[in-house]
Description:
The complex is a heterodimer of chains A (about 210) and B (about 160). Chain A is an all-alpha fold and about 210 residues long. Chain A is about 75% helix and about 0% strand. Chain A has 2 domains: about 10-70, no CATH class; about 85-210, no CATH class. Chain A is elongated, with a radius of gyration of 20 Å. With about 160 residues, chain B is mainly alpha-helical. Chains A and B meet through helix 1, helix 4, helix 5, helix 6 and helix 7 of A and helix 1, helix 2, helix 5, helix 6 and helix 7 of B.
Amino acid sequence: MCIVVQSEINECHGYVSLAGELNQKGRFNMKRSLIIILIPTIIFIVIAYVVGGSSLILNGLTISMNTAVRSALMLLVSFVLIGQIQVLITKEMLDRWLQKFSGIKGIIIGALAGGMFPGGPYIYFPFIQSFNKKGMPFYIFIAFIFGKNIYDFTRIPMEVSLINPNIALIRNLVTLPIPIIVGLLAKQFYKNRTVESIFLRAGETGASDNRNS
Amino acid sequence: MLQTTVILSLAAVILVLVNARKTGKQLKGLKLGLKQLLQTIPLILCAFILAGMIEVLIPVEFVQNWLSKEAGLRGIFLGTFGGMLLAMGPYAAFPIITSIMVSGAGLGTIVALITGWCLIGLSKAPFETAFYGVKFFTYKLLVSIPFCLVAGLFAHVAEIVLM
């Protein structure tokens, strides 16, 4: 089953500090996410009723309530952490990093900057696109994208509190080299070419610019 | 659970102090975090209910045959593509992943599931396609899948060796 929730936005509210106008957009997407997750929830409740009657629904709700009670304090603390990270890491700081380094250092900094960037894809894609126009090599771009996807430091408190600290640790350790390896592969194959010269045909860049302006 | 809360609380206190010293925006950070929590609570509660329902509905035989440690590569493969289909944010996805874990899924499956969700979750597809085209999306997908499988495999081996 494909449960599509436009809820990368959940990660994005921190970007209010970077782009105030996104606040409203964030609230809109949050409502949309809620509506979309409600649909599979209702479907599963109906299936539970058909399979095992109201007692099975009650079992499911009991599990949900126990999880909610157990996670309440951790959730509160996680969001305190997320808020602090969001005001500590500024766009200007990441700007400086990304323009300063190249080669393997650029890959590592790109991956770390991606991990520190506390926003959803419609925030980090426009952000990184501004560097592409300045000629940022593809290997740093891809390290940033994979760093964002894999590391996302604002997500770690949620991973620890909602899944399991040991699983979160193992997952993060196992996937730690991925953005670096991808960056190195991209450097090997594409040298200093930009993402636009590799993936976008002439003319497409302009369309993309217009979309983001 | 208590230990995790204590560690997270310590980290939060340290960051508040760092912010107080470096940026002076610790209160803004607190407000931002709490506002985000309030906005997200309905979604988290809904995800908890969905996760609870999945936990009672998911057949034990299915988990044992397809997702457990014994399922091996099959579980890792399913985890990777399951993560891709779980196209939702962390507050919704993590409780669901936990429910699959509690049902008896192996470590390899869970790591592949989280990595698949991180790297190839379909919620990112519209943005990747819109900004850099179908070719970029396809290349990223094709490059990412082996990484998800390898991550799952590493975790699976770690589970066999260490646990």
